[in-house]
Amino acid sequence: MKWSQLAPVGTRVLPRSRDYLPSPLTFSGFDYSLVNSGTAALGAILAWYRKQHDAGQALTAVIPGYTCPDLVAACVYAGVTPVIVDLTADRYQLNNEHIAQLDKKPDIIICPALFGMSMDLAQIRALVGDETLIIEDNAQWFPEVSVTSSLVSLKQYALPAHTHQADFFITSFGRGKPVNLMGGGLVAWNTARVSSFEPDIAPAPQSSSMFDIKRRLFNTVCRPGFYGAISRFPGLNLGATVYHPLHEVHAMDAIRQERLTASILAYLRQPVHIQTMLQQAVTPLWAPQSTQCRLLRFPILTQSKQARNHLLRIFNEAGLGASAMYGEPLYDIDGVASDCQAPFSTPVSKLIAERLLTLPLHHHVKKHHVHRMVTILDDNRQWLADAPPNQD
């Protein structure tokens, strides 16, 4: 096994820059607030929506069966019941038949972007109508109309057409996210659909003087030599998917706000040549969607759990930073089941959890890493698939 190891994700945390302070972020058609995390952003929306209704009225939020348990944490924080439905097999989309068969129309639908793949919100809006609140969860993607490296400003930043079908969208700036501020989130509301949004957001805490020390430490740890060393420490369980309750929502601190615009621009200006090289060599999961966007990780589906685990071992013995992402469907993650309703089986979500592996795409991934990845994939093509088999 190689001593050095690529981290699964690792967008560099930037130092403070004065270059973009006069050029703040604004969105075309959306206003926004900055909070302490992506989960807090989602929790703020749900808690605000909860307050618009009678205390005794039960509210439900549809969420997919393969996603981060932070969606459940945000629902529980706000007093909203998460309802798990499956994904479709042929593309990344909620199972519309499940939504139509629910005992009552959902009050809220949360649609996470997976690695950068977004759901068809227009189709979901047509199914549920204007009464249902739709939230696009962009914790794994910063919305882009098209992938370009020539962006010069974030003033009146244009959002994809499907995002305008949503009442809200959120994004995250935590470790392992596309734009990395080591914490923080954004909650944005569609000004054409939401007349007023006044969430309960506590004041920001005092900014930590340790931020730049933590920034340097994070950037150092993500280097392959350092990451390879710490990944061997027993008991660390790096990258494990764990359910953590949400306890508070407060405003983003000043240090992170100062770095926001420069960090977003730096991310969106990055070339995608590593992603392109991999796309030319292997078909990713749900290729019609995943090849049209900037990906956080490169998703590959295998034909069995055993094949996935075999490939993970080969990739990581070569130091290539492969990951299983969420190793379980949402309902099976410890602590989740007691807080959710699951009226349907979720075979597609289970299959994705068992058979998916991802390869890193961050700036530490070089061409020689890709060449080694492709060699391994070429030797194991008989175990690969590009979409789950249809469950009908």
TrEMBL record:
Source superkingdom: Bacteria
UniProt GO MF annotations: transaminase activity
Keywords: Aminotransferase, Pyridoxal phosphate, Transferase
Keyword Transferase: yes
Membership in a protein family: Belongs to the DegT/DnrJ/EryC1 family.
PANTHER family: DTDP-4-AMINO-4,6-DIDEOXYGALACTOSE TRANSAMINASE (PTHR30244:SF34), TRANSAMINASE (PTHR30244)
Protein name per UniProt: DegT/DnrJ/EryC1/StrS aminotransferase family protein
